[in-house]
Each structure stands twice: as structure tokens, then as C-alpha cells.
Design goal:
Blueprint: E1 2-10, E2 19-26, H1 32-42, E3 47-53, E4 56-62, E5 67-68, H2 72-85, E6 92-97, E7 100-107, E8 110-116, E9 120-123, H3 127-133, E10 139-143, E11 147-150, H4 154-159, H5 164-167, E12 175-180, E13 186-191, E14 199-200, H6 207-218, E15 222-227, E16 233-239, E17 243-248, E18 250-259
Parallel strand pairs: 2-3, 4-6, 11-12, 13-15
Antiparallel strand pairs: 1-2, 1-18, 3-4, 4-5, 6-7, 7-8, 8-17, 9-10, 10-11, 12-13, 13-14, 15-16, 16-17
Keywords: Isomerase
Active site: 46
GO molecular function: isomerase activity
Length: 260
Amino acid sequence: MELDIYQVDAFAEEVFSGNPAAVIPLFEWLSDGLMQRIAQECGQSETAFFVRRGEYFELRWFTPDYEIDLCGHATLASAHVLYEFLDYTDPVVVFETKSGRLFVDRENGLYSMDFPAWSVRPIQVTERVAQALGARPDELFMGERDMMAVFGSEEQVRALKPDFRLVSKLDGLCMICTAPGLDHDFVSRTFVAITGLPEDPVTGSAHCTLVPFWAERLGKSALRARQVSARGGVLICENLGSRVKIAGHAVTFMKGTITL
């Protein structure tokens, strides 16, 4: 069996930046075990698989360790593959996923994703969190999936040197660290110790939490964000109430064939 594979840098305007994802189009689903082994072999934070079902596409995402319920950068990368390599011409791509229907459109090379908005509730800043992050945040929140630590400045977020062993013991899938930005409305970093890839370069799904939070705090619906990981990436966001728009560019790093 041979399968086409693409590696795409999402939320990037040039290669070696943004967040890389592997994308594998399928005619029919492979077994879960085989897709998991392919994701392990690819070694990216997420490998996306999709199957066309008439006017929409079923989409699933696998980390090297397990299947995940929502991934922004691999969704953007999947849309990029459809438009750039598979002759897709409709104005919107509809993906059916574990998080419901997701919509992606493209205009002037910018991919815009329609994702759910996630709320947060304040929780106490604990010594456990401070030790895990190597710094004490000003505020701490628990979201619908992730924990979020808020700092006073971009410099503090950039300077974080977390203990990933301790981060892996915190609640939530991801630990999002965020602050007001110097040249952007807000900045963030996302730590996901349980995936074996301690820091996610650019995390679209984290912005399901970040965008509603900063929209309310800053009193504006249109936001420009930057994830300040080593690779880095810019996200153009909009708060729509129960939904958020998360937009960015994508570039192809590699295309090839998997032989099974």
C-alpha cells in the first residue's frame, strides 16, 4: 500500500517557522492502530488523516501517543493540502471531527478557521504551578480542556523555563502561558509534556481559550496574537461569541509517499 504524505508548516509564511504537521489523505479509514503507528513514525506533534464524504471531509488528528479531540494547526495544514495539491476549489472546506463541524476558508493565501470558543474559570495560583513553570503567574484559570496561566508581561512568558516533569502532572491537556504583547494584542506559549514534544510551536486549539479571554479583557473582538516559541507564529483572530476565527498562512515543506 502506498499513501501520499505532506508536511506543512502552519501559521507560517516561510519554512522552518510555525508548527509542522503531517497530512495524509485517505480514500477510506485505516485501522486506529495503524494510524497511530504512522503518527509515531512521522514524529510530528500531530498527524492529520482525512477522508472525503461527499461535500465534507472526516478529519482525525493523532499525536505520537494518542488521538486528540481538536488540533488547529493540523486542520489548517489539511485545508492547505486540499487547496494546493488536491484541486479543491469550493470557497469553504467543511471538516467533520470529534469537536463537531469545523470550517476553513482561504482568501489571498490566508486560511481562516471557524472553531468553538472555550470559557475559563479562575482558580488559585498554587506553589505546584509556580514550581512547574519556574515562575509565579499573576492569575490562573481552568478551561474546558487546558489550564491557563496569565503573566504581566511578554518578557516573562518568553523567559519561562518550565520543569516538564512537573508540568505533566498538572490538570488539563495543555498548560497555556500568556501575557499582553508588545507588538501584538497578546502572546502565548503552550506546554504539552504528555505528548513527548514538550512545547508546541503554535497551538491553534489553545486560541479557542485565549481569544475569548483576551477579547473580554481588552474590550475588542479582532485580535492579533503571536506564539513566542522558538519557531514562533502569528495568528489573526476574531471573537464571535460562541465561536472564534483563527487565521494564518501555511507553506509546504515536503511531499512524498508512505509505503506500508
